[in-house]
């Protein structure tokens, strides 16, 4: 899968510079693009044969959402969702985290927001791309 955003787009979007190599950033952008593709699975938009949006506004929205996910992963330092699923750690009388699994009682949307950040979901929702097949041109 191609990434919906480039390292240059990430640099322009993000509040803080990416801490790592360009190769690592490209991998994160591809991983975030997988999340965007999953979120927009039912959305209707013009796409080329590789599935990339052909409309500039839609392409920019996908890029922004992809960058927002990577930025969230950088802020949480948890791109693999390890900590969000780890639950509490208890050593003697000291407890770190919650007393139950951190995802207990959360809706699927809340779990998703915890994993990728609310900002990406808001970007796609505001553009009408969440929850709605891809029209190939």
Provide structural commentary:
There is one protein chain. By secondary structure, the chain is mainly α. The chain has 6 helices and 4 strands, in the order H-H-E-H-H-E-E-H-H-E. The strands form 2 sheets. The chain has a two-stranded parallel ribbon. A two-stranded antiparallel ribbon has the order 2-3. Helix 2 packs across helix 3 (56-76) and helix 5 packs across helix 6. The two termini are 18 Å apart. The mean pLDDT is 84.
| Low-pLDDT residue spans | none
Structural class: mainly alpha
The shape is globular
Overall mean pLDDT score?
A: 84
Q: In this structure, how is the largest beta sheet organized?
A: 2 strands, parallel
Q: What is the terminal separation in angstroms?
A: 18 Å
What level of helicity do the residues show?
40-55%
Helical region count?
Answer: 6
Percentage of β-strand residues: 5-15%
Major sheet: order of its strands? 1-4
Number of strands: 4
Helix/strand order, N-terminal first: HHEHHEEHHE
| C-alpha-based Rg, rounded | 17 Å
